[in-house]
Design brief:
- A hairpin with a 5-residue loop joins β2 and β3.
- With 195 residues, this protein is α+β, with helices and mostly antiparallel strands.
- It is built from four helices and ten strands, in the order ββββαβαβαβββαβ.
- A five-stranded mixed sheet has the order 6-5-4-8-9. A three-stranded antiparallel sheet has the order 1-10-7. A two-stranded antiparallel ribbon has the order 2-3.
- It starts with a strand and ends in a 16-residue tail after the last strand.
- The longest helix has 18 residues.
- Helices cover 24% and strands 20% of the residues.
């Protein structure tokens, strides 16, 4: 399976605003999460084996860390016309089937993925209370077929640091996953089909 690494994004970058729907038609925006000490914006998909490997643990992580003050938003930016399993309705089914308690939103125009510089799924952006990027790395080192347990240790360590008012480690391992499925002609300038 092709592997794509997350783009290097400078720590301290501010979270980009968005207004995106969930499958029930409710619109969510960045300011809905004002006042929370930490926010994870996770670009995920329904079809990617890298996301399928971690999705149950990610759901548990979100439930556990919400009690500590972390909020989670998931965004699906894949081309739903070419990949119907990534449609808004499918996003709703996935959220229900996996037990996501956080908003799982559809970025139909792919503008939000571009604004964040998201390249792959999963692509994880952890912001502090000022909505400055504190962590942009892997969930953990588990990959499909490598036999390593899914623990979320890298993201957990970063979230613990942010919630404690500290900085996560500056050395962060890039996330690896499936490339975002861009609509033909809508690929960002940094995208390469060779990835």
């Amino acid at each position: 399976m092709p592997k794509t690494a997350s783009n290097p994004i400078e720590l301290g970058t501010r979270a980009a605003d968005f207004i995106l729907p969930d499958a029930r038609g409710v619109l969510h925006k960045l300011s809905d999460f004002d006042g929370t000490p930490a926010l994870l914006v996770a670009f995920i998909s329904n079809r990617c084996p890298f996301v399928q490997l971690i999705r149950n643990d990610l759901a548990a992580f979100a439930r556990q860390y919400e009690a500590k003050g972390l909020r989670v938003i998931a965004i699906n930016s894949n081309d739903a016309e070419a990949h119907p399993e990534e449609s808004l309705a499918a996003v709703g089914h996935e959220a229900e089937a996996i037990g996501y308690t956080f908003p799982y939103l559809k970025d139909e125009a792919q503008a939000v993925a571009k604004a964040y510089g998201a390249a792959c799924t999963p692509d994880l952006f952890l912001f502090d209370g000022a909505r400055k990027l504190a962590y942009h790395g892997q969930y953990d080192d588990a990959r499909p077929g490598n036999g390593k347990p899914v623990t979320g240790k890298d993201l957990r360590a970063a979230a613990d640091a942010v919630l404690a008012g500290a900085r996560p480690a500056q050395e962060q391992t890039a996330s690896i996953g499936c490339n975002i499925k861009w609509t033909a002609g809508n690929e960002p300038s940094w995208f390469s089909n060779a990835a």
